Amino acid sequence: MSAPERSDGDDRRPADGAFWDVLRATTQSRIGLGRTGDALPTRRVLEFSAAHAAARDAVHQPLDVDDVAARVRELGIGDPIAVTSRAADRGEYLRRPDLGRVPADLSAVPTVPDADVAIVLADGLSPKALTDHGAALARAILDALPPDVTLAPPVIATQARVALGDHVARALGVRTLLVLIGERPGLSVADSLGIYLTHRADPEDFAVGVTDAHRNCISNIHPPEGLGYADAARIAAGLVVGARRLGRSGVDLKDTSRAELGGDAERPGLG
Hints:
Strand order of the largest sheet: 1-3-2-4-5-6
Shape: globular
Helix content: 25-40%
Number of strands: 6
Radius of gyration: 22 Å
Structural class: alpha/beta
Strand content: 5-15%
Largest sheet: 6 strands, mixed
Order of helices and strands: HHHHEHHEHEHEEEH
């Protein structure tokens, strides 16, 4: 039996090159790279090597704390306080994630019992992401938060994992914490930033039994290709309002920022 003839619709399919060009325009993933014999084209191999080098550099590049602090100071919420984890250097930070979750010294962090929210800017696994996006994202968050929300002085944390922020929030005496942290670099993006929201009923509850189930995450923030500052800030502000109303964050707190106006849209974060 002969194979069925292709329909006119199949005949109108783009040629292979045009087909992959269309798909590549929708993603940063490496797709349709072609081949030369049994291998990738030299240009694609060199692109991969360059992306791998950029990802490694993003992990190991030390954070310029003074530069970030100067830009954060312009936000007008106080002089930034610099803290570090118990990881002595970048190598130990990468080998010992547990040390990155615990601060070395918080004596410089004041107690601010009348503050509602703390913002911690952490280098994480991509100091480059915090350098590129941290101050601008923090400004967008300040613009998006309700006017009655009061802020603690900003904290810049180095060799830091997300959980280090719990100790900072407890020291500050706040109930709502936003950690802006560099995400693990990939071969498509080396400077992506994430926001982790944690809300506890009492500041003393921070760093005591807090798990990832108690947090909400907004990731892939790296305009223009990734999530933009304004959109990320809008989601974060909605979650802050919802967490304060609900009395907790994490799995019980939902992002309803994209809901249509009316009804649930007026009750952000409840789900």
